[in-house]
Design a protein that fits this description.
This protein is α/β, with parallel strands linked by helices. It contains 11 helices and 18 strands. It has 2 domains: about 150 residues, Rossmann fold, CATH 3.40.50.720; about 190 residues, 3-Layer(aba) Sandwich (Rossmann fold), CATH 3.40.50. The strands form 4 sheets. The protein has a 7-stranded mixed sheet. Strands 11-10-9-12-13-15-14 form a 7-stranded mixed sheet, sandwiched between helices. A two-stranded antiparallel sheet has the order 7-8.
């Protein structure tokens, strides 16, 4: 008996968790695919594009009858109550942000795998949705900053005179930060980067940016690629250095976050009064408090001629490629957790053990 895999329509997002191309390239040849009516339409994949690959079904049928249910964000409570016993729900439950998730799921008889809990290891790299979406966010952040900045990014030599290149400061050299570096450099900016992780230095320099070091960072070995919380003494030194660099910057891209904690405030309100008029701050850490003291999530704040945009969801602004990348991560996961057409949830496997939040 083959697995029936159902793809849900997102309720507040243009993306879809699996695209026609993902299914076409899938090695799960024995699986039966269902897609909720219109699930991919806003990402550019209408139901007709799934013909011959997946059967369009109403939401209730997908919820009640599919063996595996896939989404980007978890179904709401009324949906969860319809899912059949023994089914596997694959989504981003974010238990590190919401401590009530596990207790809520405990009342149901299905299993739950959280894509955002997959370990960030070499083996799991092809399933890492956080990295896939962060890459898009870093790219879009720079484009947004370039659009808002009242100055050029590249050096320009014209008959009307020479224009200096923009200076971009990036806080955090994770996936989003590294993509922001690459995009800024391609646009001709001069780039400086802060990161508390010593391992980030080589990557930053390989992309042509300057790595700004602050002595005394807490060791991050064993943190799985995530930044670790730093001492207040270190943060004070870091803030002082950031303030000095920020005053000379045209654009600041904020990406510094600590898993399960409030984002560290690295740009004080007073700093904005020392920045150039027209400068732009894009704060990708907005949903966890922001790296800038005046950041408001999903809002734009203007202070002393500086524009601060708080947006942790820029990956949603590129729904076609974001859906394709998310779907690739899903397909790689499905290949890992199935064997001969059946689920094989081996809890001794580090990827399954780390991400299966309800067995």
């Amino acid at each position: 008996m083959s697995l029936t895999i159902g793809i849900l329509k997102e309720k507040d997002d243009q993306r879809v968790s699996v695209t026609p191309d993902n299914i076409k390239k899938s090695k799960l040849k024995e699986a039966t695919w269902w897609i909720e009516n219109g699930a991919g339409a806003e990402a550019g994949f209408n139901d007709a594009k799934y013909e011959g690959l997946a059967t369009a079904k109403d939401r209730n049928t997908v919820l009640k009858e599919a063996d595996i249910i896939i989404s980007i964000f978890p179904p709401d409570d009324s949906d969860l109550a319809q899912i059949k016993a023994g089914a596997l729900v694959i989504s981003q439950f974010r238990p590190y942000q919401d401590a009530t998730v596990n207790d809520k799921l405990a009342q149901y008889n299905f299993r739950a795998l959280s894509m955002d809990m997959i370990p960030r290891t070499t083996l799991a790299q092809a399933m890492d949705v956080l990295s896939s979406m962060a890459s898009i966010a870093g790219y879009k952040a720079v484009l947004m900053a370039a659009q808002k900045l009242p100055r050029y990014f590249p050096m320009m030599i014209t008959s009307a005179g020479s224009i200096r290149p923009a200076k971009v400061l990036i806080l955090g050299a994770g996936v989003a930060g590294l993509q922001a570096i690459a995009t800024s450099r391609k646009l001709g900016a001069v780039v400086e980067v802060f990161d508390v992780r010593a391992a980030a230095k080589e990557e930053v320099q390989s992309l042509g940016a300057k790595f700004v070091e602050v002595e005394g960072a807490k060791d991050d070995k064993g943190a799985g690629g995530y930044a670790v919380e730093q001492s207040e003494e270190f943060l004070q030194r870091q803030r002082a250095e950031v303030q000095a660099r920020a005053a000379k910057s045209d654009v600041i891209i904020c990406t510094a976050q600590i898993r399960g904690r409030k984002a560290p405030v690295l740009i004080e309100e007073a700093t904005l009064h020392n920045m150039k008029h027209g400068s732009v701050i894009i704060d990708l850490a907005a949903s966890t408090g922001g790296n800038c003291a005046v950041t408001e999530n999903d809002k734009t704040v203007r202070l002393n001629g500086v524009t601060v945009i708080g947006n942790s969801s820029l990956d949603r602004d590129m729904p076609e490629d974001a859906s394709q990348m998310y779907g690739n991560n899903i397909m790689n996961l499905l290949m890992h957790i199935t064997k001969e057409g059946a689920l094989d949830l081996n809890m001794e496997d580090e990827i399954i053990a780390g991400s299966l939040i309800k067995a």
